Amino acid sequence: MAAPEPELMTLPAWLLAELPELAALDGPGLLIDHGSVDLLPLQGTDSLRFLHGQTTQDLAQAVAGSLLRSSAVNASARMLALIDLLVTPDGALVLPVVGIVAHLATRFDRYIFPADQVSLGALQRRRQVTLLGDPAALLAPLAATPVPARSWRALTCNSEEVLVLAGTGLGLPGCRLLLPPRSPLPAALGLLDALGHEAQTLLEALVGLPGLGTELSEDHNPYALGLAATVGRDKGCYVGQETLARLVSYDGLRRQLRFWRAAEPLPALPRGDRLLDSGGGRLGQVTSRTAHPAGGSYGLALLRRAGWSDRQVVLGDGDRRVNLRLHRPLASSFPTDSMD
């Protein structure tokens, strides 16, 4: 089973410089309201076996209450979705992290055979909230205690069922709540400072959460996107296994995800996506770009092997060139990490 994502308490200086609001993690905490999300239920005795074969995570030892992050990939191990799996007594709930759950439902339905004891239920809508900070302090007003790592549980709050998920999925301390779709926030949580849309988008890039259609696409595999923790390296046969195994066995990974930052605003950037070294050699490509709330611009990029240790590269388009600072995203994990 892949290692859990790190839940860091001491944040690196570069991260706090990019998003000073994260200093609140040492105090009252922060809240992110993601709005509505649809969960896909799988029911039946073969549900975990089916998901074990259709996604990258090792589910062989999963039990009711387990919470596991996984990647849904195609036969050539290219990304379809990043998901969390909430194991239930009779199957699992699929929570999309990045991806369209209705597309996953269509794909899963195509691969369920008549003999399989598994069925897809109707989508269940929830309101998803992430609490950043000390989970014990954040959950105390709800008369709840933190759940163990890699797990989830249901509790009753104001006569309504609330699902509490361990961890934030962002490499930061905290937890997540799945509330009824029209449920107001519990009063105590409404007192927390909330990250606005711009800050939330920046945070997702800082931790390396791939964007749908940019980084998370059928052009890229989980290892390149820093999602090695979603891959069970020792599990049995599953969709995409052969490709992912070869990438590890033959050290064949060619690209890695990086966060980049430029002092120049978006209009001043070259239009092309080509990254260069100081001598003009090709190093990779920018995959996304966004205006930074504090000025300048930022985004994610895929860097070729020759540039993995670089801290600065050039975004170039003809004679127009801009320097980009690079950081490894906070929550990223690569196959080579276990070899360091």
Give a short summary of the structure.
The chain is an alpha+beta fold and 340 residues long.
Radius of gyration: 20 Å
Number of DSSP helical runs: 6
The CATH homologous superfamily of the largest domain is called Probable tRNA modification gtpase trme, domain 1
Distance linking N and C termini = 19 Å
GO biological process, one term: iron-sulfur cluster assembly
Keywords: Transit peptide
Organism: Aphanocapsa feldmannii 277cV
Protein name: Folate-binding protein
Give structural notes:
With 340 residues, the protein is of the alpha+beta class. It has two domains: 13-195, Probable tRNA modification gtpase trme, domain 1 (Gyrase A, domain 2, 2-Layer Sandwich); 228-339, Aminomethyltransferase beta-barrel domains (Elongation Factor Tu (Ef-tu), domain 3), CATH 2.40.30. 15% of the residues lie in helices and 33% in strands. It is built from six helices and 17 strands. Strands 1, 2, 3, 4, 5, 6, 7, 8, 9 and 10 form a ten-stranded mixed sheet that branches. It has a six-stranded antiparallel barrel with strand order 11-15-13-12-16-17. A hairpin with a 7-residue loop joins strand 8 and strand 9 (174-179). The two termini are 19 Å apart. Mean pLDDT is 94; it is low at 1-6.
Characteristics:
2 domains, 6 helices, 6-stranded antiparallel barrel, single chain, 340 residues, Gyrase A, domain 2, disordered N terminus, alpha+beta, Elongation Factor Tu (Ef-tu), domain 3, 15% helix
